[in-house]
Design brief:
Number of helices of chain A: 6
Helix content of chain B: 25-40%
CATH topology of chain A: Arp2/3 complex 21 kDa subunit ARPC3
Number of domains of chain A: 1
Oligomer: heterodimer
Helix content of chain A: over 70%
Strand order of the largest sheet of chain B: 1-2-5-4-3-12
Strand content of chain B: 15-25%
CATH class of the largest domain in chain B: Mainly Beta
Order of helices and strands of chain A: EEEHHHHHHE
CATH architecture of the largest domain in chain B: Beta Barrel
Structural class of chain B: alpha+beta
CATH class of chain A: Mainly Alpha
Number of strands of chain A: 4
CATH superfamily of the largest domain in chain B: Rod shape-determining protein MreC, domain 1
Shape of chain B: globular
Chain lengths: 172, 430
């Protein structure tokens, strides 16, 4: 069993099987593109982001986290008509940050996961806002209540998503 | 080397971010409509759309079985209501077709070029972009079905958007298309306010609303007014419903900020129509012979009821050739026929309009123009000829244009005139 040591505490590192690594992000992107057609209220959720956070905190490897985030983000970009890289950059940052933080703090309990998801949702939105407005020139609107509300909604869903990911993750 | 090892993760992060920013900058610089679709998009669409299509098929199948075979409650009552509605619509259609015919003739007079949708293709909505910053959908028709970029996409309620990217030109690709919705911030549609006739540009906002821009702030735009396509964008044909004005406020730079609620429900799109062919042709009058605006307006004047006197030849409804239940244009000859007695009722008359009037009995003048000529001359001066003609027996068969305008000169005839508020559709035999 591979163990990472931080501040004297033992933190377990997990991995995911290859089918899970490929199919779970694809399923998240597919559901993100399909469910809101039938239930428009679900547009506030960002399932690929939850998967990125879930993978990153379980693997606790910053490099794996940033690459997973980058790839999932680029795939998400590919379905939009915007330039490819907006979600790629945002999710790269989130993947790196989540896995780095996963080393430092315990992210196994639902409370920590809840707060972590709100934090990274807001970080994701800030990075996206800066890139979209500054580099691509999109008109963007920022509303703290909306972002916090969406963050909370995503965090609630995130607890369920992470619980599902816990079932498929494997100890290294 | 120690430093590199220590900050390895950070260096990789910066490198990956830098590469992506660089790629983004290149795309922003190169963005153009003619740019081919990127391979990553083809892969992503190819990976996701088969599942979307499969799920969509499953959903429509189960929904179809339920609604078509199991859940038939209230169908009988609905059928009865629809039949009643159909009857009402048929009556309405008669009235509307008359108006349309008239508008068509006016368009022809003004040499309008009319645009109309001549071919559409129904498509199922199978997916969404997955991002609130990119309001676009995917439909299950693509290059193999003849879909091309910039084709208009509509529903029965109103416009939806335009085709942005088409996949399927390669046999290995899925034949699907991406449609940019009108509430996306990068979309733009030429629009016009139905009553105010003010033109503007319809744009989406980052929050997904639709606003009409470039309408001057000194104009008055009432809430609830209908917005239509203006045809100025070269994508949507003119006159398609866009939505209704919900809020008007002062915008920036002397323009109004007009919020519009789209007529089509963009959040619940299931089936759309792609406009695959738009024809443009010169409006042509459906009626033979020259027509002028005054002739068309004359049709709306009051008419004369048919005379039941059997002694007058040609006075019965079927053989009058314009007497009684006749079209106004056909009735005009009877003025001439009655006054001069040279032409028998029902015989078409040709010639110059001017010649028809002074004599009153001279069988001449093209039918429509003769009506105009009679209107002009009779009301101006020719009381003798007019009176002689219209005062005779057959004057009872005088028609709307002539009798209505020659009121001062022909009092006896006036008594036989029965004004009708909207006679055109009822008097004209079809």
């Amino acid at each position: 069993m591979a163990i990472t040591y931080t501040s004297g505490e033992q933190v377990e590192v997990y991995r995911f099987s290859l089918p899970a690594t490929i199919l779970i992000p694809l399923a998240a992107i597919f559901l993100q593109a399909w469910l809101p057609l039938r239930f428009p209220i679900l547009k506030i959720f960002d399932l690929p982001l939850l998967v990125v956070i879930g993978f990153a905190t379980a693997r606790r490897n910053p490099l794996a986290g940033l690459f997973t985030g980058g790839l999932i983000g680029i795939l998400q970009d590919a379905l939009t008509h915007q330039p490819i890289g907006l979600y790629g950059i945002s999710k790269t940052v989130v993947g790196f940050g989540a896995s780095s933080l996963g080393i430092k703090v315990d992210v196994e309990n639902p409370g920590a996961r809840f707060l972590l998801t709100i934090l990274f949702y807001v970080v994701h939105e800030i990075v996206f806002f800066i890139i979209a407005r500054g580099l691509v020139g999109l008109r963007m609107e920022w509303s703290w209540p909306h972002e916090i509300g969406s963050g909370v909604a995503n965090a609630v869903l995130g607890i369920a998503v992470y619980a599902l990911l816990d079932r498929v993750k494997q100890r290294t | 080397m120690d430093v590199l090892g220590r900050y390895r993760n950070l260096i990789v992060l910066v490198t990956v971010l830098f590469a992506q920013v660089l790629g983004l900058a290149v795309q922003v610089k190169r963005t153009s409509d003619s740019e081919p679709t990127r391979l990553i998009r083809v892969w992503a669409v190819g990976a996701v759309t088969p599942f979307e299509e499969g799920l969509h098929w499953l959903q429509t199948s189960t929904s179809g079985i339920w609604h078509n075979y199991l859940y038939l409650r209230g169908v009988r009552a609905e059928n009865r209501d629809l039949k009643q509605q159909l009857q009402q619509m048929r009556l309405e259609q008669v009235r509307v077709s008359q108006d349309a015919e008239q508008a068509h003739r006016l368009q022809a007079l003004l040499e309008f070029k009319e645009q109309f949708i001549s071919q559409t293709m129904a498509a199922q909505v199978i997916g969404w972009s997955g991002s609130e910053q990119s309001r676009s959908i995917y439909i299950d028709k693509g290059a193999r079905e003849g879909i091309k970029p910039d084709m208009a996409v509509i529903t029965k309620d109103g416009i939806v958007g335009k085709v942005l990217q088409v996949f399927g030109s390669n046999p290995l690709e899925r034949s699907v298309s991406q449609v940019l919705l009108i509430n996306d911030q990068t979309s733009g549609v030429g629009a016009i306010l139905d009553q105010a006739r003010l033109q503007g540009i319809l744009r989406g906002t980052p929050s997904g609303d639709v606003v009409l821009e470039k309408v001057m702030s000194d104009e008055t735009v009432p809430v609830g007014e209908t917005v239509l396509t203006s045809g100025g964008d070269g994508i949507f044909p003119k006159g398609l419903p866009v939505g209704k004005v919900t809020k008007v406020s002062a915008g920036s730079e002397l323009f109004l900020n007009i919020r519009v609620r789209p007529a089509a429900n963009l959040n619940r799109l299931e089936e759309v129509l792609v406009v695959t062919k738009i024809d443009e042709r010169q409006a042509e009058p459906e009626q033979a012979g020259p027509m002028r605006a005054v002739d068309i307006l004359a049709e709306r004047l009051p008419t004369v009821p048919p005379k039941q006197d059997a002694s007058t030849p040609g006075a019965d409804k079927t053989t009058a050739g314009g007497a009684g239940a006749v079209t106004p244009n056909a009735a005009v000859p009877n003025v001439g026929a009655a006054s001069g007695g040279a032409a028998s009722p029902g015989v078409p008359i040709t010639g110059t309009p001017q010649a028809a009037v002074p004599g009153g009995g001279v069988a001449s003048g093209t039918v429509p123009s003769a009506a105009t000529a009679v209107v002009k001359k009779a009301s101006a001066s020719a009381p003798s000829s007019a009176a002689s003609g219209i005062g005779s027996t057959a004057a009872a068969a005088t028609t709307r244009p002539a009798t209505a305008v020659t009121k001062p000169a022909t009092k006896p005839v006036q008594s036989t005139v029965t004004p009708k508020p909207q006679p055109a559709s009822q008097d004209t035999p079809q």
